[in-house]
Amino acid sequence: MAVGTVDVAATAWGRLRRTFGGPAWLRVFSFVLLLAVWSLATTADPSGQVLPAPWVVLDTMWYHLNEEGLLFHLGVTLWRVAAAFFGAMVIGVALGILMGARRRADIILDGWHILFLNMPALVLIILCYVWFGLTEVAAIVAVALNKIPNVVVTVREGTRAVDRELLDVARVFRVDRRTTFLRFFLPQLYPYVMAAARGGIALIWKIVLVVELLGRSNGVGFKLHEFFQLFDIAAVLAYTLAFVVVMMVIEYGVMAPLERRCTRWR
Amino acid sequence: MAVTAGLSVDIRRKRFEGDGRTPPHTAIENLRFDVPVGQFCCLLGPSGCGKTTLLNIAAGLDHDVDGSVGIPADDAGPRPAVSYMFQTPRLLPWMSVRDNVDIVLDPDARAEGRGVRLLERMELGSYLEAYPTRLSGGQRRRVALARAFAIRPALLLLDEPFVSLDQPVGNRLREILLDLWQAQPTTVLFVTHDLNEAIFLGDRILFLSQPPSCVVQDVAVDLARPRTPDSPAIHAFRTGLLDRHGGLLAGLAGATTDPGHSTP
After folding, report:
1. Could you give the strand order of the β-sheet that contains B82-85, starting from the edge strand earlier in sequence?
2. What does each C-alpha distance from B65 to A174, A211, A246, B53 come to in angstroms?
3. How close, in Å, is residue B4 to chain A by CA atoms?
4. Does residue B219 sit within a domain?
5. Coil, strand, or helix at residue B88?
6. Which of the ends of chain A has fewer CB neighbours closer than 10 A, N or C?
């Protein structure tokens, strides 16, 4: 019967939806869709120079991985990201707490803060290179200076939201200052520090590439500049892809577990 | 415990300066009383009469006051220990039950396992590693009570610690409090707006006036212990009290008929 057939089709479709409609499958679908759109777009470019196909990019990545020291440049960039990240987090968290907890400090530093917050990344990079020379330190300082104001914004907000009543508990029971800071105060800031850290890594690695492009002779940014001059788009995309993979590993392998650990009591 | 002095409160004036939105007001004026060492003293007064303010001053959280609060000293240490149980349990949600108590102890007391022993005594032995968010309201207050007693305080301050609990849970906690207090005698200042609770717990009740508050009546509760909550003896004491001082305590009439503790 026709009705019966429709029913069977409907249940089959329903079963299909249940099986492949889950979040994991949707992610796979989204990725496949990206590849399909990309592949389709390459047909508009018969030369293959402007937009190489996905498999060409993958092939190029494999070549650079084995023959052209992709890992070395990746490692150098990653080192700069890490150095700038930890520097920016330590200084940013310290300043954020100071400005959130002390009104005077907030008033004194607020003007500087707004200045740095609105300073274009490029200006800071140029000034650092001009003042400190084309050195590794100048590069890392330039990147960190770009990130510190953002960390300060988030951590200052967190410090202002700290529950004073819990700090009063520490005062009444005469808990020493160190323990009060580490066990009563800091845990309340973790969500804010985590938010600053996540946004921080994404921002920092983008700025690191610019710093490398302008004044370093190795790293992903330096290589991208080179490929740009050679008009080697496949290599540009291969390096991008490699770095995105590394950053995703950091996000899912380090940041997400760390956040779960910090919030397991909820 | 060889004891040298009790709690002595002598506050000439405690004033809150307004900040634009709230007008300035005097919370406490000429509030004077002494509590002998080891006495369980209840403070009763209408809400907003400066009871919490007084406890904050006694706890050393508020120093901006014209007057002084002398803390009972014992010969156990150079600084008398003060414990404070707040209206809400104020546990640290990111620490286990055990750590919540251990964190306020000095290393020796912690090593000796004093916190754990108290928690076990309060039937929380199977919750030592649990986070406070997993506990019921009554259990959280038991943890707060364990924390308050763990430091062996010379003075214990309690600010309406059992409000918003249902009757059986509240009564159980009051019994636990008395049990601990008898095992580990200390001077107690217990703030409440519930007359039945004050009669059940206290050796003595101080009635405070509307702000600026001062002591309007000082009543000794001469009922034998152990007492039973909501027993005829307590109701008789309450009735007698209201008969004798009805006019003075008029401001409290509303507060004493709290729905959770009303007389059947």
Report:
1. B82-85, B155-159, B187-192, B40-44, B204-208, B215-220
2. 21, 58, 60, 10
3. 22
4. yes
5. coil
6. N
| A112-125 tens-digit pLDDT | 999 999 999 999 99
Optimal mutation site among A172, A180, A186, A265, interface B, most CBs of chain B within 10 A: A172
SS3 category, B103: coil
Evaluate whether residue B174 is within a structural domain. yes
In which region does residue A135 sit, left (phi positive, over 0), alpha (psi from -120 to 50) or beta (all else)? Answer: beta
What is the ipTM, given to two decimal places?
Answer: 0.85
Question: Among B79, B82, B94, whose Cβ lies nearest the Cβ of A187?
Answer: B94
Please check whether residue B57 lies inside any domain of the structure. yes
Chain A: give the shortest CA distance to residue B61, in Å: 7
Specify the pLDDT at position B71: 81
Residues of chain B with C-beta less than 8 angstroms from the C-beta of A169 = 84, 86, 90, 92, 104
Rounded Cα–Cα distance for residues B131 and B133 (Å): 5
**Residues of chain A found within 8 Å of residue B104, distances taken between Cβ atoms:** 169, 173, 175
The answer to which of A90-94, A223-227, B130-134, B210-214 has the lowest mean pLDDT is B210-214
pLDDT tens column, B148-198: 999 999 899 999 999 888 999 999 999 999 999 999 999 999 999 889 999
Using DSSP's 3-state secondary structure scheme, residue A69 falls into: coil
Domain range summary for chain A, segments of one domain joined by +: 2-44, 62-262
CATH number at residue B52: 3.40.50.300
* A165:B88 CB<8 A: yes
Test B103 with A171 for CB contact under 8 angstroms: no
The minimal CB distance from A265 to the residues B82, B88, B133 is found for B133
Number of domains in chain B: 1
Q: Which helix (H) or strand (E) holds B206?
A: strand B204-208
| CATH fold of the domain at A62-262 | MetI-like fold (1.10.3720)
Domain range for B52: 7-81+152-258
pLDDT, tens digit, 9 for 90 and up, residues A1-35: 445 555 666 677 777 777 666 778 888 888 899 98
Flag whether B172 is in a domain: yes
